[in-house]
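Notebook B, p. 112. Complex prediction, attempt 2.
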Amino acid sequence: MTPLQLLPDALNASFKAVPAVMVSAMLLLFLGIGYVFRVADTEDLWVAGRSIGNVENGMAIGANWMSAASYLGMAALIALSGYYGLAYVVGWSTGYFILLIFLAAQMRRFGKYTAPDFVGDRFDSDAARAIAALTTILIGFVYSVGQARGMGLVGIYVFGGDYTTMVVLMMSITVGYLALSGMLGATKNMAVQYVILIVAFLAGLYAVGWTQGYSTILPHIEYGALLSELDSQFTEPFATDSFYLWVATAFSLIVGTCGLPHVLVRFYTVESERTARWSTVWGLFFICLLYWSAPAFAAFGTDLYANVVGPVYGANGMSGAEGDVIVVLASQLANLPEWFVGLVAAGGVAAAIATTAGLFISASSAAAHDIYTNIVNPDATQRQQLLIGRGTIVALGAVVTVTALDPPALVGELVALAFSLAGLVLFPMFFLGLWWENANRQGALAGMTTGLVIWTAAVLNELVLATDAGPVVPVYADVFPAVGAALAGTPIVFAVTIAVSLATEEPDERIKRIVRQCHSPEPMGQQESAEEVATDGGQVSAESQPSSDAESDGGPRRGE
Amino acid sequence: MYERILIPTDGSDTAAAAVDEALDVAEKFDAEVYTLYVVDVDAMDLSLGTEQVERVKAGRFGEMDELEAKARAATEYVAERGRERGVDVAEHFRAGRPHDVVADFAEDHDVDLLVMGSHGRSGVRRMLLGSVTERVLRSTHRSVLVVDERGTENREAE
Amino acid sequence: MTEDNTHEAMPENDTQARESHAQTATDGGVAAGRETADYLDAEVNIFRPSTPFMRDHLRIIWVMFAAWALLVFGPVVATYFATDAMTSVTVLGFPLHYLLTAVVSPTGALVLSFVYARRRDRLDSAYGIDHSTGGDDPDPAATATDGGGGE
């Protein structure tokens, strides 16, 4: 598939001023609000400042999911792959419940900084930390390629031109956005991002539904009536994709949700476990707002395409590129005013850029903090960390851009690959690390390696080395489909980790106590992490309570 | 002449190079001494992620053990050198962009002299790693004494 | 600050459990050496909960997990085994399998999440755990007023 073929033909490709301005406006708005809420000179680092409530945390969680995959890719998969597309709806939403009951509160109590921190500290191993860090970077890479494809395709609508130019342009804007954000000291404000993007999406949905007579007040339910008019492939189960693939994909996405580094780290920083739990509930609600809507959008789009452009399925049907932009295409085919279509398109582009920016930061922290500072140079200064971080971002930006020029799959599928990696390598470590105190270093190393091998083999088999005839080893692709490798793979990783842990010596008592502290119902002090409480038996030392004896301007600390 | 002296520190050897000279001056002028560690929020954004920055904003730096330990170790070094000479050093902690914060602190506390170390880098290394000292110099109109790291090595040999 | 009602709320009634709960209850969950030590000595193993709190918590978890599995994989499995029935029945215009998968699964997960969070709150108050003080911060103004109510 050469880049030039990636042109969504039905999409009106030309430079449109108003949509272009909207894209810029959205990004500038994100930057502006981030700037307003930036960290100005903080006087006392230990005095409680602005605390973040459950709703806002929930929006931030929702914002994590407002990527090109959810905004564009899901409707695409639902339209193109019919019932199989719903595996993505189910997988990406219901996974949060598993996160809620097994991981959210416990992560809060563990209280570190990054996901590799957890793996490195819990399993007392620099090697484990390194593997986790590299996996984080790999996840960031694969996830971003999906975003880049989305940006590139929708960019064609906004700016015209061809796919290659758009990918390069959009990725440059992304890196520029990050740089500008860094220069301004603007911190991400996820809640605002979420609100803007969901408004753009829902506005598009309601407008298309209303103007085409599909729906009035609740398109999320009203689209049901439309389904019988669509080609049966839209709803027919297991027509092109098997039952196994459906279940495997949904499972992979679910465990992947629980293994994504940038999702988990949010739980380190919430105020209490109760906040962790309720924020997740709110987060799932905000995610559902989008996920109830995507199938409706897909249905509208499919109907419009069939009526206006041509057959949706079959040899001359909707192409992958067109499917990936079905959300914008639907708005265009519904003859909505150009500025409105521009709003929807801008939402897609902004979602992709914001997500990529976040992923790049996640990767940069893995490189700067987890690999460089914790392993290579413990005395690294803040400036050195800054440099490593920036270097990683630039390098990753280049690699993602090049890869995205010839992407091997649809937006949603590319992102699902990242999830399946997370589900195979990191989720087992989080779960076993928190719920079985005897999971040890050797087990973790064996498990992570196994997961990485399974995933890499699946990707090579099905995407990189595959020929037109299909995967290199078809049987492997059947059992371990790249987007759904975790169904068969994660249990294997669990088994390996458990077996190796049982066969080798148990972890130190110190580590066990930390794990126990994560489950202890004793509420932890705001200023404590599980490690602190476990090692000094819960005595809150004077050192972790400086606010009670500090002067307001952070005056002299410890006595002589 | 100098009543209040500020020794910003980031825990590096470069910063440490300035400490002895700063304390010499403090002793001679019988000045009050402050030392300041600034948590670089930009670096933290990229090295730990924005959620951690929010943690600092929410005043929960105490949860961040290693960071707090580094900060305290940096200021403690200065305080220790001061104790050896019988000079009291007040340890302060802030977060933000180092050069801005240092300049603001100097204003707020009416500091007469800032003493900072310089690594004397040049060329590409200077361009990449930059110099907080240089930026402080440009951000403040108070007196700044820049102690070159390489110069102190020679002096110690005497 | 003793909370005797914790005894009635507890299904486990051996004296040891009662004692450790009384300890937990006495100071509103402030982390202090003795109480925390009980939990720090109790092995964490998801299939072998070693404290009453863990047992109760895990009971909630497993029940809800089962409900979740049913909601999430039930529709697709039913669609696989009873394809005709699932696709021919229509509800609100939707073929049944589509409605269950696209609407009921995510919504069900959301409802379950809400129920879980409520149950945990109830479990916490049964054990006298109070998140709002944060355990040891004496200044209530410095923490969220009710452990994170929406702001």
